[in-house]
Specification:
This protein is mainly β. It has three helices and 40 strands.
């Protein structure tokens, strides 16, 4: 039931929609009011809210898991890298919750009683894993912050300068916050939610802005005097395009976060100019920041460019570029559960396996230009671990106080140029990038699919040939004996071929014993129309050498006569015996018709297999080039030898 009272300062009505709300800020005079049953106590003026790009406001309504809610309160919290909002929600079932809004990410949590003893704030480290509330959590952020302003109804007393010590925990899609500003600490558990999934209504779009606003800051660079601007207080650092100095916009004196680039410092020109607007995945974006990072490996310097993009509904995205290779990257609200303790192992996320590619112990910011939502400075370093499943890449970036995961998707330079309507084409990529799609991937799959279809057709054709071509019929079996010193030409019995035979096979099986024999065969058509000669030499030797048996040659031989028409036939045989061993030789001759053979079938399969083998080799060669740039580069055999 709502409770209505009057503001002691201005008399304006103040409505407490939730019975758990004990603190409110008067919407008319900004007095800070504490509720004591039906009475209100004025404890002073609340600091003005810092104007930001949030699309939310008090009175915004939405739905979560089928239950309607309204935004009834808000606190703004400032930490080292920026400002975030915590919105107090009241649900129709009288539950209350919190909607955290930071950098375009929305997390909805509810207070949960935990019987376990919570770890101390000082004992927690980034990436640490522990069990709490029957779940395993990973520490993703540690913040020492302060509340700078409040608005609407709140369940506790806050004011400007109110300290907030908080630790964020991740567990896949689940999210938790340990709030150490209370004693004992509180735990809030929930999940990251999509802005569109909340079905929000009564947003700030198209409505009058609050009376107390902070205008966009326009100032001059303390180093070179060039004009600079920060579009909103959400922007905490601006890099001077002219000299490279980085300015803290939250400081009224615009103190330098890092000095201007020296004459010897290399200046990198962005491929996408600050202020460039375009569309990525159908969503509008604007380039507001540009920075260059660098790392050193084996004495070689590697640098890459990163572009901060402002999106719709207060969201941010990233574009990264290395040697002409581009990726669109988004920070993950539901990152993998890997803690980094086994960073060489594969990472499972969103049903897909990502292989470890590289670990960069220290990626240093060497140039900054434009606007950023945290106090970025040159010399700032973080640890980066990359995992790939082309065209996707997962990147784990960590410092002593922060841990973030992002997913990058490889994009061709032509797509980037088209998205931002660039007049000139972007440089062609150099080499192979970590998550660059293998250009032979789809080609290999298509060729393999075609190979199996054609191979199946070949098998069907071979079966049909064997079924309907006829063959395998024995036409003649006859024994011959050849003896020295003179061997006359012998003639076989006649045999009949009823229909055209694709292949007529003549098999000779002899009694050779460490000798040889030459057979001059002639297949003769009895009608005298044609004759087909063939000469064969058979040899078979065996023995023992050094206690081991050996043999060479064969006692059996076959000759094939192709495409023989119907008719009556016989064979003549003229034998030549080995003069060095003129012993009798027995020969059994068999004549048979043979249907479809296997040689053509095998040759066809070999020919067809050439194409998938070729595409597979090309695919593998591309992967070798990819992984040559990783921490798991293939080692050549000649590189593994020991030095003498």
């Amino acid at each position: 039931m709502a409770i209505t009272a009057s503001c002691p300062s201005c008399g304006a009505p103040v409505v407490f929609q939730s019975a758990s709300s004990v603190f409110a800020v008067c919407a008319y005079c900004s007095s800070t009011l504490v509720r004591h049953d039906q009475n209100l106590e004025d404890i002073g003026k609340m600091a003005a809210l810092v104007e930001d790009r949030s699309p939310l406001q008090l009175g915004t309504e939405g739905s979560y898991k089928g239950v309607h809610f309204a935004l009834i309160g808000r606190i703004q919290i400032k930490y080292e890298q920026g400002i975030w909002n915590e919105w107090h929600l009241l649900f129709d079932d009288m539950r209350t919750g919190w909607l955290s809004e930071a950098g375009g990410e929305y997390v909805l949590t509810f207070a949960q009683f935990v019987p376990d003893a919570l770890p101390s704030f000082e004992s927690l480290k980034i990436g640490q894993r522990f069990v709490l509330a029957s779940q395993t959590w990973t520490v993703s952020n540690i913040a020492q912050a302060e509340c700078i302003a409040g608005q609407g109804e709140l369940p506790f007393k806050v004011g400007a300068g109110y300290p907030v010590a908080a630790v964020d925990l991740r567990n896949g899609a689940n999210f938790a916050t340990l709030d150490y500003s209370e004693t004992p600490p509180l735990m809030f558990i929930g999940e990251a939610v999509e802005f569109s999934a909340l079905r929000l209504a009564n947003l700030r779009q198209g409505m009058a802005q609050p009376e107390k606003t902070v205008a966009a800051q326009v100032f001059r660079c303390p180093s070179c005097g060039s004009p600079m601007a920060a579009r909103s207080p959400e922007i905490l650092a601006v890099g001077c395009v002219a000299c490279g100095a980085v300015v803290d916009t939250a400081d009224r004196n615009y103190q330098l976060l890092s000095k201007a680039l020296g004459s010897r410092d290399e200046k990198y020109v962005p491929r996408l100019a600050l202020g460039s607007k375009g569309k990525l995945d159908g969503r509008p974006v604007e380039v507001i920041g540009f920075l260059v990072k660098q790392c050193v490996s084996a004495g070689i310097f590697y640098d890459w460019r990163e572009y901060l993009l402002a999106g719709e509904n207060g969201t941010y995205r990233w574009l990264t570029e290395y040697n002409g290779h581009w990726n669109v990257a988004d920070v993950l609200s539901s990152p993998p559960t890997s803690s980094g303790a086994m960073e060489l192992a594969d990472v499972r996320w969103n049903g897909q396996s990502f292989r470890h590619f590289t670990t960069t112990p220290s990626a240093e910011v060497i140039q900054v230009a434009g606007e950023f939502t945290w106090r970025v400075r040159r010399g700032e370093c973080n640890r980066v671990v990359d995992y790939v499943a082309p065209p996707l890449m997962l990147s784990r970036e960590s410092t002593d106080n922060d841990l973030n995961w992002s997913q990058g998707t490889y994009v061709e330079p032509a797509e980037i140029a088209s998205a931002f309507a660039l007049k000139q084409a972007l440089p062609e990529p150099i080499g192979v990038f970590a998550n660059q799609p293998n250009p032979w991937e789809e080609t290999h799959r298509s060729v393999c699919r075609l190979f199996w279809r054609l191979a199946l057709l070949a098998v069907v054709a071979q079966v049909l040939f064997m079924l309907f071509a006829g063959g395998g019929k024995l036409l003649l079996r006859q024994d011959f004996d050849f003896a020295a010193p003179a061997v006359d030409e012998l003639q076989s019995r006649e045999f009949v071929i009823d229909e055209r035979v694709r292949r007529l096979k003549v098999r000779n099986t002899t009694s050779l014993d460490n000798n040889w024999i030459g057979l001059n065969l002639t297949l003769v058509d009895k009608s005298g129309n044609a004759a087909w000669p063939a000469s064969r030499e058979l040899a078979y030797y065996y023995g023992y050498d050094g206690g081991e048996s050996w043999s060479e040659g064969n006692r059996q031989d076959e000759v094939v006569f192709p495409d023989i028409p119907p008719g009556t036939y016989y064979l003549t045989v003229d034998a030549d015996l080995a003069p060095e061993k003129p012993v009798p030789v027995h020969d059994r001759m068999e004549v048979m018709s043979v249907g479809a053979g296997w040689s053509n079938f095998v040759l066809l399969l070999v020919f067809l297999a050439i194409f998938p083998i070729f595409t597979r080799l090309r695919h593998a060669a591309f992967e070798v080039r990819r992984w040559a740039e990783s921490d798991h580069a293939p080692v050549a055999a000649d590189d593994s030898g020991d030095d003498d």
